[in-house]
UniProtKB/TrEMBL annotation:
Transmembrane residue ranges: 296-322, 342-364, 371-395, 449-476, 482-503, 541-560
Entry protein name: Ferrous iron transport protein B
Subcellular location: Cell inner membrane
Alphabetized GO MF terms: ferrous iron transmembrane transporter activity; GTP binding; metal ion binding
Gene3D superfamilies on file: 1.10.287.1770, P-loop containing nucleotide triphosphate hydrolases
Gene designation: feoB
Source organism superkingdom: Archaea
Organism of provenance: Thermoproteota archaeon
Amino acid sequence: MNSEGVVDTYIIAVAGNPNVGKSTLFNLLTGSRQRVGNWPGKTIERKEGERIIDNVRLKFIDLPGTYSLSALSLEEIIARRFIVEAKPNVVVNIVDASNLERNLYLTLQILELTNNVVIALNMMDLATKKGIKIDVKKLSEILGVPVIPMVAIKGTGVEELIEAVLKVSKGEIACRSVKIDYGREIEAAIAEIIGMLVKSGVADELPYPLRWIALRLLEGDREIVKAIREINGDLIAKIEELKRNLSDALGDDVDVIIADKRYIFIEEIVKVAVEKSKVAELTITDKLDRIVLNRFLGLPILVGVFALSFIIVFSVNIGFPLNLLIPEIGEYNLASLISDYIFGYISEVASSYLISIGAPSWFVSLVSDGIIAGVGAVLSFYPLILTVFILFGLLEDCGYMARAAFIMDRVMRKFGLNGRAFMPLMLGYGCNIPSVTATRILHRWRDRLLSILLCSLIPCQARLAAFIIIVAATFGSFTAQVLVMLSLYVLSLVLLVFVGSLFNKVLFKEEPSSLIMELPPYHRPSLRVVLWHAEERSKHFILKAGTVILLVSVFMWILISWGPAGPAST
């Protein structure tokens, strides 16, 4: 993995629907060589990593998970802008083999933007269990790009995928474009719009393929319409008139007809390349959902799952199993082990060394009582935060978190939100910062703003630490401590419902948006992916909140140790 001697660097975009194993595959492709940030000017997370093979650097960019490139959400806009403006050498499109028909819609939209695509046909094991047999060679011939069968969670097919990516990047595999026939009338309209774009000079101002621009204009893409209106407003008026005439002639909205044509093309692909060898049976997911999504059992199960999660988190903080393993050091929980024992020892060693070299007493106190104590206080939060993110990651990766959103939809509507807002609010129990940024998954600004206002009422990890100190000092038995902690969380939930209902009636009087979301199949969580995400989120918290805590610790030391006449003598 040495970067010395690198000859070429290729940019690889990784795209796909949500819940197709994109995070798992991205981690397999990049390992620990990753960087996490935000897309420029956006709150949406951007992950990039690299892999060096035979003196060639492959730089992978993880695009936001989307179902299409229709610019209906910020994620879709980011994904398609990157494909067009950054011009990646290859787009790796991850497709769920067990839901091929649904996933190919995004594939076709990507192929309309670029030919350099490699399809990672993931979850082949799940497709086999469902009796689905895919002719990979035939699928590759129809789409004109390499198709690599994979089971990412087991690491199967990763090397073959990398080999295909390298060959496409180097031009050793020639990918061809796929052209869908949208019918005589629409094809004539596309040709006419392309002529308008070229004649008016607008074609030279936009980086997108002309046929793709014409299609997006016929589909009423707001971003493309806005971009062209700023260049030539008269042209948009002519295209709108053309679109109205076309709609009248066809007897339906043009965008609906275009979408239908794509799905007809997908159906033809599936007929040729896919064979179902047995009648679909009830899967484990179907059987579990009959219980988990039951109108009577769903909510009690959800309460039980999250209550158990908080009991586990609280157990880590009160000491189990640390109090059984190392009671001789007198520290009974991870937080005190880190802040008191480990950093207490470091503080003593640092103080002794500074005194031995003749450092002034105020400087010794600053280092030991201000800086080292502050760092210890920050890191004492780490076990707690890491545990929360691991538990939430397990629930999300196994598929239950999406069910929780579905179950909570009816409750969330009481205060003007849909079930999708449940996930950002739940993240607030880990930290309010990622909770606020996670509201980007909500499509309407009204829903985002209301969710952000309610996030401040969620007791985050910093407040949990305060709860623990007060409860541990007030109640002696473990049972009482757990019950009181659960009561505090229930009380915060009641307050959240009350304030949310008040905001909904006074500030936000519109109807909440409807909940439309995919329920992914249950599967065994990838521990590697869960731990990686938990580590990254915990590190983010430590760096952001830890900086403030450390500065406050030093500031408090100054207030305590520095008087009007200078440093205190004791």
